[in-house]
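Ligand-bound model needed. zinc ion.
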Amino acid sequence: MTAATVTTAPGPDQGPGAPSRPDFARWEGQLADPGVCVHPVWLTGCIDAIDLATGELARVYDTAAEPGGVLHVVCGNRRESVCPACSAVYKRDARQLVRAGLLGGKGVPESVTAHPCVFATFTAPSFGPVHSRRVRGRAVLPCRPRRDHKVRVCPHGRDISCPVRHGQDDPRLGRALCPDCYDYQAAVLFNLHVGDLWRRFTTYLPRHLARLAGLTQRQLRSLVAVRFVKVAEYQARGVVHFHAVIRLDAPGADYQRPPARFTAALLTDAIGQAAAAVAWAPGPAEDYPACPGLVLRFGAQVDCRIIRDGLVDGLPGTGDKLNVGAVGNYIAKYATKTLTAPGVPDRRLRSAADLMGLRCSRHYRQMIETAWKLGGGRTGPADTRLCKWAHMLGYGGHFLTKSRRYSTTFGILRRARAEHRKAQRHPDGERDPWGRPLDDAVVLILKTWTYAGTDHTTTHGAELALASADMARGR
Ligand SMILES: [Zn+2]
Ligand SMILES: [Zn+2]
Ligand SMILES: [Zn+2]
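Prediction:
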């Protein structure tokens, strides 16, 4: 959960000694409409204003005047499954942030559309045959066709051919054709370490760029800087893959174009080489005796689509040129999504007993069990992160990450929203309790908050919140 911060300054109509006004602190953008946020945080406390010249103190707000004596602050959770209202706000910000890096705006010049830029997808390698939807152009192909009308048989004697042309919502998609052939351990460990692979990739990319451009790394750093925003998505088989917008700028904070020799084609080549070079072998401290000599890598090919003048060559699964707005929507969508398969637990497992009650598909259950066992349960010496993230199939990383200066930041967007609301409420500027324009050199604002709990007091309240969030999304 994001820690709630409340910054409040006094508003108008607050003469000295004026009665507390319950809506005082609601003027701030952070504060919850308790009918919308599903898990509001409760605070008790007050806000005082002190005239620095006279020492006079005026209480301008007290939670005692609120219903129930507490103030509700939004939970700020990014997961759609946890809080639809707060995740919708985060999703909007993510979309703006991605768009600004592609089209300009929010302090980024529009000339950024001319920079070398690609939309790249980093997948995992195969861990065994699974049901998949294969598309060529507009045609859906058979999943795993038989060869010469003969079934394909795996070493366990199972038929691993599948002539079905799977629909988009086919529940079989991603499931292993033979659970014994499928390397669940490697799949779970890939999820656990995919963030390490990405970190190495970001280190290797400038090296490969430098080599392709015939420069030393130091020379490269003086000419070009790599910016990116990336998002994690679960494939149907329960393995994480990354989508990233990767852009080249000139060094510095002003989003200038790098020299013309750095083209999108050069960037694409460097991404392919760097991704192919990345490998992760768990060190002795995190050795997995069950998988000796395990080396994790990205899948063979990185899908790179060049973004130019606000158009992208087409997202995976479609061949059409798309407006970059679609990229923003795509990334924002996955920034708030987690693993949402029926029956997958939405919180950490506490004991092996939780494994017994799993109601998800056999494939996901096997991944969760594998993660739990590799992690050594709660008692073993092995990597306990695997137990912690078993319900996430091993992945414990962030869903959206970005480099410095990709575009704006979430913090700037949040502050701008709060300022905007404040300006709407006080079109003539804020006033202190003595009726003067607010000036922090004249009046000290003292805020005292105490954490008083979380969530709605009744399930009725939570239901109301979910219903109103549904309505808001409908609109
Ligand atoms: Zn919330
Ligand atoms: Zn199939
Ligand atoms: Zn098999």
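The CA atoms of residues 49 and 340 lie 47 Å apart.
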